[in-house]
Amino acid sequence: MASSPHPWLNPALVAGGLSPLLMLAVQGPRGELGPNAIEAALHQTGLLALVLLLASLACTPLRLVAGWTWPARVRRTLGLLAFTYAAAHLLVYAVLDQGLAWGTLWADVTKRAFITVGFAALVLLVPLAVTSTQRWVRRLGFPRWQRLHRLAYVAAALGVLHFVWRVKKDVTEPLIYGAVLALLLAIRVGEALRKRRARAAAAARNPA
Amino acid sequence: MRDKPPAEPPSSEVTPEKTYLRRRELLKNAGLFAGTAVAVAGGLHLLGRKQTRPMDRFVPDAGLVEQPVAKAMGPFDTDEPRTPYEDVTTYNNFYEFGFDKNDPARLAHTLKPRPWSVVIDGEVHKPQTVDVEQLTSWFSLEERVYRMRCVEAWSMVIPWLGFPLAALLQRVEPTRNAKYVAFTTLLDPEQMPGQRRALLDWPYTEGLRLDEAMNPLTLLATGLYGRQLPNQNGAPLRLVVPWKYGFKGIKSIVRITLTQEEPMTTWRLSAPREYGFYANVNPSVPHPRWSQASERRIGDFERRPTLPFNGYAEQVAHLYTGMDLRRFY
Predict the structure, then answer these.
(1) Chain A: residue nearest B275 by CA?
(2) B51:A48 CB<8 A
(3) Among partner residues B25, B38, B299, which is closest to A16 by beta-carbon distance?
(4) How many CB atoms lie within 10 A of CB A197?
(5) A48–B99: do the CB atoms touch at under 8 Å?
(6) In this predicted model, what pLDDT tens digit does every residue of A138-179 receive, in sequence order?
(7) Nearest Cα residue to B146 out of B33, B53, B249
(8) Which residue of A has its CA nearest to B294?
(9) Which terminus has fewer CB within 10 Å in chain A: N or C?
(10) Helix pair A142-149, A113-130: axis angle to 10 deg
(11) Mean pLDDT, each 10-residue run in order, chain B (329 residues)
(12) CA nearest to A109 within chain B
C-alpha cells in the first residue's frame, strides 16, 4: 500500500469512466436512447472523448497551479479512456451510422472538412495510445516521448473544431470546450516561458 | 469439561494487528473506490447529457379533432409505415424552444395556441386578420400521410391534418403582382423563451414561390394523427411542403404575406451557403458539411437513399424545369 498512495484511484476512474459506454451498449439495443439512438450514441461518445481528453490534458496544469501530485497518476488512464471513446465514436459512425459503406466513408473523410478533422484527431491519438506504457517511455527516452505526446493538444484542438463545425447553430458548448483547452495550453506555455527565462537568468549569472 | 470457562482462542486465531489494520485500509479503499467511480460516472453522465426519450408526462394530450376527416387513402398519401406519435411529438427542431430535439416537447407548454390571429396581407384583394378557428372552419380537413425529410438527414412519415394552402390563397384572391408567399412565426419571447437568445433572426420567416404555394401538395396543417397539433409541432397552424427540407415547414404562423419579391428566409439569412430559398430535397446536392444522398428514417436501423424531391418528383419536378438546382438549392 505504501508503494501507491491511492490504490483505488485508477480502478475507480476506469470503472466510472467506462460506465457511460456500458450504459450506451445496454440502452441502445433496448430502444432507450430516444427516437434517433444512433445519433444519440454518436453525440455522446464524441462528447465524452473530448471531455476525457481535456481532463487528461488538465493533469499537468493542475499540478503546476494547485501543486497536487495525484493528477499525474491518472493522466494515462484518462488519455486511454479518451481514446476508447474516440474509437467507439468512429465505430458508431462507420458501422452503425454508415453501415460500412466504404465509398461514402471515403467521401466523408476526404470531402467533409468536419469529418476530416475529426478523423485526423483520432489518427493522432493512435500513436499516443500505443506508446502510453512505461516500456515505450523507456524505449523512446523521456524527452522524445514527451514531445510525441504533445500531439494530444493538436488532437484536442481538432476535436473542438470537429465539434464547432458539426453544430448547426448554437456553438456555445463547443466554444466552452475550446476555451478550456486554450486555458490549459496557456498554463503550459506560461510555465515553459517561465522555465526558459529561469534558465537564461541562471546562465547569465554563471557565465561558463 | 463442560463447566470450564471457554478457553481463550488460540493466538493463531487472533487477528494480528497488522491484518486488522490492513482490513480497515481495504474497507476504506473500497469506499473511496466506489465513491470516486460513482462521482466520475455521474460527472460524465451530466456532461454527456444525452437525448433520452422524455417521460410520458411531457407528451401532451392534444385533443381529438372534432371535425370529421375523410379517411380514404388520397392520391398523395404514402403507405409507408407511419412514424410513431411519440417520436413525431418528442423529436423536433423548433429552436424557439431550445436546440435539443426533446426541448420543444419539454418546453413548448408556454405557447398559447388559442386564441390565435392570423394576418393575411400584401398582394391580395381581400387582406384580413382572422382567428385560426374561423380560418380552419372555412375548409374541410384532410388527412395527408407525407414523408418529412429534415435537412439533417433524418426523416419521418407523418399523417397530417390540414387543408391545401391553395384553397386559402384562392379565398383571399392574390393580385396580379403576387409572385411569392412569405410566412412569419409568432414573435413573443414570453411564449417562446428561445427567442431571448438572438441565435437566429427572430421571428422565423419562410417563403414559397406562388406556384409552389398553389401546388396541391402544399398543406397548411392544424393537426396530426387525428389530433390537434401539439405545441412542439407548430400549433395552431403550420406549413407542410413535403418535397422540401423540413425547415421550410414554418410553425406557429401568425402572418401570411403575398409579395412581388422573393422574401428573405431565416436559415438563408443565418447561413446563406448552407440553406437556400428553394431547399428542395435533393440527394445530389450535398449540404456543405454533410451528404444528402441518404437518410435515416426515425425508428430504422439502416439508412435509405434519399429520393429527388423527397419522392414527389412526379407532382413537383415540372415547377423547376430549366432551373439549375445546384445553384438554386
Answers:
(1) A168
(2) no
(3) B38
(4) 10
(5) no
(6) 999 999 999 999 999 999 999 999 999 988 778 889 999 999
(7) B249
(8) A98
(9) C
(10) 160
(11) 65 75 87 93 83 46 59 85 95 94 93 96 98 96 96 96 97 97 98 93 97 98 95 97 98 98 95 94 92 93 95 96 90
(12) B290
A115 CA: distance to closest CA in chain B (Å) = 9
| Number of residues that make up chain B | 329
Given CB atoms, is A160 within the 8 Å cutoff of chain B? no
Contacts (Cβ under 8 Å, ≥6 apart) of B329: B276, B278, B279, B280, B282, B285
d(CA B164, CA B187): 25
User: What residues in A contact B53, CB-CB < 8 Å?
Assistant: 32-35
pTM of the model: 0.86
Q: Which of 161-190 (B) contact A at CB < 8 A?
A: none
Element of type H or E holding B158? strand B154-164
Within 10 angstroms of residue B207's Cβ, the number of other Cβ atoms is 24
Q: Which residues of B touch A43 (CB under 8 A)?
A: 50-51
Measure the CA dihedral B208/B210/B211/B216, to 10°. Answer: 80
Q: How far is B30 from chain A (nearest CA, A)?
A: 7
A17 contacts B44? CB cut-off 8 A: yes
Residues of B in contact with A166 (CB under 8 A): 289
Q: What is the pLDDT of residues A67-95, one digit of tens each?
A: 998 898 999 999 999 999 999 999 999 99
Query: Is there a contact between A15 and B294 if contact means CB atoms under 8 Å apart?
Result: no
User: So what's the pLDDT on residue A2?
Assistant: 42
Chain B residues whose beta carbon lies within 8 Å of the beta carbon of residue A47:
47-48
Q: Residues B99, B100, B103, B105: is their CA dihedral positive or negative? A: positive
User: Which ranges of chain B would DSSP assign to H, the alpha helix?
Assistant: 17-47, 85-90, 103-107, 132-137, 165-172, 210-214, 266-270, 313-316
How many residues are recorded in chain A? 208
C-alpha distance from A186 to closest chain B C-alpha (Å):
23
- Distance from C-alpha of A112 to C-alpha of B286, rounded to nearest angstrom: 10
Measured distance CA(B262)–CA(B57) in Å, rounded: 42
Q: Note the pLDDT of residue B57.
A: 41
Q: Cα-Cα-Cα-Cα dihedral of A161, A166, A167, A172, to 10°?
A: -10
DSSP-assigned states of every residue in B264-320: P-HHHHH-TTT--SS-B--TTS-BTTB--SEEEETT-SS-EEPPGGGGTHHHHGGGG
Q: End-to-end distance of chain B based on CA atoms, in angstroms?
A: 102
pLDDT of amino acid B68? 53
Cis previous bond, B75, omega within 30: no
Q: What is the ipTM of this complex?
A: 0.84
d(CA A28, CA A38): 8
